[in-house]
Amino acid sequence: MSLAQVEEEVIEEKVSGEFERERIPESKLKSWKSFLGMYAGEHAAGTEFVIGPLFLTTGVSAFDLIVGLLLGNLMAVLSWRFLTAEIGTKFRYTLYYHLEKICGTRLVTVYNLANGLLFCFLAGAMITISATAVGIPFNMEMPRLTDTMPNSATWVIIVLCIGAVISVVAARGYSMVAKAANWMSPVIVLAFIACGIVSLVNLEISSFSEFWNIWGEGSEPFPGQIKYTFWHVFLWSWFANAAMHIGMSDLSVFRFAKNPGAGWTTAAGIYIGHYIAWIAAALLYAVYLQSPEAQVLLNNGAAPPVAPGPLAYNAIGVFGILAVILAGWTTANPTIYRAGLAFQAVISKTSTFWVTIIAGTVATIAGLFPAFAMKLLDFVALYGFILAPIGAVIVFEYFFGKKAGIQSFYAEKSGIKFNQAVFWAWLISAGVFYIISIQFDIFLSFLTLPAWLSCGILFLLISKTYQKKFKR
């Protein structure tokens, strides 16, 4: 998840205070090429080495996977183009400043805390992924699909070392890291393609029909996994980045775009990282499943491990180890940095360096527990489910606020610091649908869109009453 020049400037300007609380001037706008580079790199990340294999563990069929990913990722691109880019280029505010105008400073602080913690857990998964590569020369026991706790002292030491290095680099040298990550992105993409080609050779695939039959009509899911259908794949791939598009996080990026058409550039990253890379990573796991070690585990009713390091190493050797380390590193660094910025809104008197160190520490502790990486499909679904509804407040105010008769940017114009209409819409929507998910064992990605729509509608309804009451 590396960040290109445009995002580097977004974050650096936010830290320095330049344009943090005002529209981006015309002289600072970027062409679509800047966004093309950013998204092409951002979505060929360490997570892809885990997500692809995890799809195989769910017993998904070929049609459900290949067509589901094709259409689900298309919906993600459309969400970026017609929602995020549309609003981002209209107002040209950061997400946090836009929310502050609607929600008030105190409620935005609550959002930042939730956002920062979830960023830390995501970065922790990236540290876990890099650790599976670093551990190969040390003959380290790899975490299994069902592992939740650290499995050895070697694992703990490697994770702590990786986390410490990433945290310090993120805290002291983000500009350098962002630029280096841009150079690494083509290497990582090349590694995914190489892994896919080598895997096809190892699987002796010589035709499209043989490729299709890798998944065929699907199978029973591995122990501890749920069965994925077309709708699981379609909705999960649409909402894998829900916080960024329908959750409006990428307003901070698209405020630099000359026009909403820049939103189409997200397709570069989505179809390279969330289509080609996921399928290539799944092929790596398909090769491993044919090994005697994996067969023994399957015959004993256990799920073979999904450890990116060994999978990539078996396919393309040392280059695979480097690719996994770089992919995890270039994802974790900016993610920790973003988490630090979110925390700084909560503890504003603390320096950027120390809030980033705090974020890195939380991420490293999370990285000790393999569950965040091994259950990445579930975690990403939860991440989007929690943060996406707050984006509905921005979307519904922009498209329907005037028709509903509510005041836009109400917190700013009324002087309130905690907009209860936003809070209750968010809490009720997320709470009710999460309870439904637990009570009826429904996968969260099925409920992300209902929760998002519910939050937007409730915001409009509650705002009409709340704003009238406040005026009196």
TrEMBL record:
Question: What Gene3D superfamilies does this protein's entry cite?
Answer: Hydantoin permease
Q: Where are the transmembrane segments?
A: 116-140, 152-171, 183-208, 228-247, 268-291, 311-332, 353-373, 379-400, 421-436, 442-462
Superkingdom: Bacteria
Keywords of the record, alphabetical order, are: Membrane, Transmembrane, Transmembrane helix
Q: Which residues form a coiled coil?
A: none
For this protein, the record's InterPro entries field holds: CodB
Q: What is this protein called?
A: Purine-cytosine permease
Species the sequence originates in: Autumnicola musiva
